[in-house]
Amino acid sequence: MLSHKKPPNIIEIQDVRYSRGKRAIFDGLNMNFPRGAVSAVMGPSGTGKTTLLNLITGQLVPDDGAVLFDGKVVCPCSRHGLYNTRRQIGVLFQDGALLTDLNVFENVAFPLREHTRLPEQLIRQIVLMRLNSVGLRAAWQRMPSELSGGMARRVGLARALVMDPKLIIYDEPFTGLDPIAVGVILRLIRQTNDVLGITSIVVTHDVAEAEMLADLIFLISEGKVVASGSPLDMQQKASSMVRQFMQGLADGPVPFHYPGTSYADQLQTMSRT
Amino acid sequence: MTRSLQACWVSFSQFAATFGGFQMFTLRLLPYLPRAILRPRLITEQIYSLGALSLVLIMFGGFFVGTVLALQSYSTLLEFGQVDALGAFASEALVRELGPVVTALLFAGRAGSAVASEVGLMRATNQLAAMELMAVDPLQRVIVPRFIAGVVSVPLLAAIFCTMGVLGAYLVGVHQLGVDAGAFWSHIQDRVDLFDDVGSGLFKSFVFGVSASLMGVYEGYYAAPNAGGVSRAATRTVVITSVWILLFDFVLTGMTMPGV
Ligand SMILES: Nc1ncnc2c1ncn2[C@@H]1O[C@H](COP(=O)(O)OP(=O)(O)O)[C@@H](O)[C@H]1O
Ligand SMILES: [Mg+2]
Q: Residues 138-167, chain A: which have Cβ within 8 Å of B?
């Protein structure tokens, strides 16, 4: 009943242009992330997936266009406004980005201690509940250096959830994990999204996991969305770019060779110096 | 020729850029300082890890500098028949010069480099970015407590260094070289002035403490996020801080020496 006032998309990316130096990373990027869904953002390495996340969280500012969170422009112009937005977004870094001088419990408690004045008793309850939901309640005293990669990511997830965010963003959550840990993370992302009723954005280049997990897949390449749709739609897309990526072919519209001068030219110019 | 000129120009402009960046960083920290007092726990934790863990090194250093001072000055003083002034000589040298300078150099090597690499590693492992994304300002949470802790620690450590130094001079002078204990202490009492000597020593170590701590957090905060960047940050902290300390010492000695 309340939801009719909110825009249907939690994040809207409108005509975003962003360059690093002279190279345009995004040029006219448009994306809508629907509320309540798990969306996957896919693309070859170096296309700017992490850059996209940094634009959403306001760590980077688009050269042109706008990023909207809950209908409001994300803008680092006011630190207060930006921090207000960030408090509603949980981010899970690739390696968890746990604070190495705090133990697991204190890592998860960190946002609560920084932002609230809750009594210790309550903090303990919230933290243990979050740790329990990622299956690591018993590891509360461990230091981050004593955790495996998958465990560190689960602690990172518990920490990202502790402030009850509306949106949670995962950057490459499956990279470098063993198959069991991948399965655990996969289930946790889905469960978290559905049980807590939040929205999730998963950045990944793992096709199989994205197809299992996501309600909606965006494929970005060369600064634009080249295809989007449900996993089933994506499988049936005919475009060669989509086929190359979804089926993992070495050469295609995304060339095997890093762009540059021809082989012969390079041999000549390099022998001259 | 033009190449070496060019190289000179590049390193000069890099230096200027670093210095400018450093000043900007310092200005950015200022508004955070008053608020930092509201969370003394963060500061005392850092005083423990920076100051208290440098303690053994500082005591060791102070003690041996004191003994060497006594040994070195003894023969000269003997020649002029002034061995009773051994304590006064050693303690004045310690309080005015050696205490602040050597303490700050040891602190830069032990704690300044540790801060630079710790903060640099937090940068490299995305911990600072994670804080930003949790809407926690790393300048307030990480940088300022370490800075204040350094500024508080260095003068205290210098005082301990001097105390240990005088103790070392006493042991060597009185117990080994046979200086009269009463004369040793009474000369110190006569010669060392609370305001002139202790005050100027404290002022120096405050300035050195500010430089060493600022440099450590600055280099760490702007370290390139990789292994090379972190180690470079630690090295630069020690080198630049040491140069500064020696330069500042010259300037401050000129300013505070009576009758110069
Ligand atoms: N700090 C930076 N400075 C310059 N270029 C960068 C920087 N970070 C990323 N890039 C460039 O931006 C492009 C996109 O990077 P990124 O968003 O990390 O890609 P992805 O996460 O999709 O692998 C890459 O080609 C990379 O070279
Ligand atoms: Mg990336």
A: 159, 163
Domain-wise residue ranges, chain A: 9-88+165-271, 100-160
Q: Does B186 touch chain A (CB under 8 A)?
A: no
* 8 A C-beta contact, residue B243 and residue B15: no
Q: Which residues between 87 and 126 in chain A have a beta carbon less than 8 angstroms from any beta carbon of chain B?
A: 87, 89, 91, 93, 95, 97-100, 110-111, 114-115
To the nearest whole Å, the CA of A226 is away from the closest chain B CA by: 29
State how far residue A118 is from chain B, nearest Cα, in angstroms: 16
Whether the CB of A50 sits within 6 Å of ligand 1: yes
Cβ-based burial of B229 (10 A; exposed 0-12, middle 13-18, buried ≥19): middle
* pLDDT < 50 stretches in chain A: 1, 3
Per-residue tokens: B92: 């004045």
Among all chains, which residue has been given the structure tokens 């749709």? A229
ipTM associated with this complex: 0.82
Which atom of ligand 1 is least distant from the CA of A48?
17
Domain range A9-88+165-271, its CATH number among 3.30.1460.10, 3.40.1190.20, 1.10.10.10, 3.40.50.300: 3.40.50.300
Strands (E), chain A: 9-20, 23-34, 38-42, 64-69, 72-73, 89-92, 167-171, 199-204, 216-221, 224-229
Q: pLDDT digit string (tens) for B23-55?
A: 889 999 999 999 998 899 999 999 999 888 799
Comparing CB atoms, the residue among B122, B125, B132 nearest residue A59 is B132
pLDDT in tens, B150-182: 999 999 999 999 999 999 999 999 999 988 999
Residue range B69-104, pLDDT digits in tens: 999 999 889 889 888 889 999 999 999 999 999 999
- Name the residue ranges covered by the structural domains of chain B: 40-251
